[in-house]
Amino acid sequence: MTAQTAIEWTETTWNPVTGCDRISPGCDNCYALRLAGRLKAMGQARYANDGDPRTSGPGFAVTCHPAALADPYRWRRARMVFVNSMSDLFHAKVPATFVAEVWRVMANTPQHVYQVLTKRPERMVRTVAKLAGTYGVLPNVWLGTSVEADAYTRRIEYLRRTPAAVRFLSLEPLLEALPSLDLTGIGWVIVGGESGPGHRPIRAEWVTPIRDACVAAEIPFFFKQWGGRTPKAGGRELDGRVWNQFPDHAQRRHT
């Protein structure tokens, strides 16, 4: 249910939910969809659910896995955890009661830092506002939204209204310049290019204004990759250096 990961801005992935569906252009070459297909072919039971037993799809129907809720209690050392790398916790098909169970686990394991990323911040703000009535703002839970194109900067407005210890942006895969980007209330920014089959190119002139805005506002900036055929094909350097900044709220910092 959990895995060490090559994702540079986290340490572990935890997937109490798997499966999703396309919602915007950033999903067109979804790595999780491709990975689910491979895992299904390998016989992984968690990815057998296509949503339609008559099809031979990739096993990416939204599915909750209650057994996975026990995983964080077993970890012996504190971890930085990307929640639902293979799904979206705030997908409409994830019951609110199950989201609450995930929240309870995160509240009960304050030694871990949880990073929750969504393309559905409209539901996130409503759900988290209710959960805050029970748990308050959990200091070990960072909430973020993905923005791949300027039309989707509107997602940031919902994120800004969401109670969170840290609000972060994943501008990945960055598909164009973001002239409407407003970093007010944001505590961390990740930028990255697309990788894998059919990857779409990223341009330095899209990235550097975002980096410069973060520097000016003293917002930690993390440049994940230029992308290409493989995630590491283009390297990670931007203007001659690697940008590995994390929020001061982190219980430890990556080096």
- Count the beta strands: 12
Strand order of the largest sheet: 1-2-5-6-7-8-9-10
Amount of helix: 10-25%
The top level CATH class name: Alpha Beta
Number of helices: 6
How much of the sequence is in beta strands? 15-25%
Report the principal-axis shape. globular
In N-to-C order, the SSE pattern is EEEHEHEHEHEHEEHEEE
The CATH architecture would be Alpha-Beta Horseshoe
C-alpha end-to-end distance: 27 Å
How confident overall, as mean pLDDT? Answer: 90
Please give the domain count.
1
Major beta sheet summary: 8 strands, mixed
List segments where confidence is low: pLDDT < 50 over at least 5 consecutive residues.
251-255
Radius of gyration: 18 Å
Give the CATH topology: pyruvate-formate lyase- activating enzyme
**What structural category characterises the helix and strand content?**
alpha/beta
Explain what the structure shows.
This protein is an alpha/beta fold and 255 residues long. It has a single domain, classed as Alpha-Beta Horseshoe (pyruvate-formate lyase- activating enzyme). It has helices at residues 31-41, 71-74, 96-108, 121-135, 155-160, 204-217, and strands spanning 2-4, 12-14, 17-18, 63-64, 80-83, 113-118, 141-146, 166-171, 188-192, 221-225, 237-238, 241-242. The strands form 3 sheets. It has an 8-stranded mixed sheet with strand order 1-2-5-6-7-8-9-10. Strand 1 and strand 2 (12-14) form a beta hairpin. The longest helix has 15 residues, at 121-135.
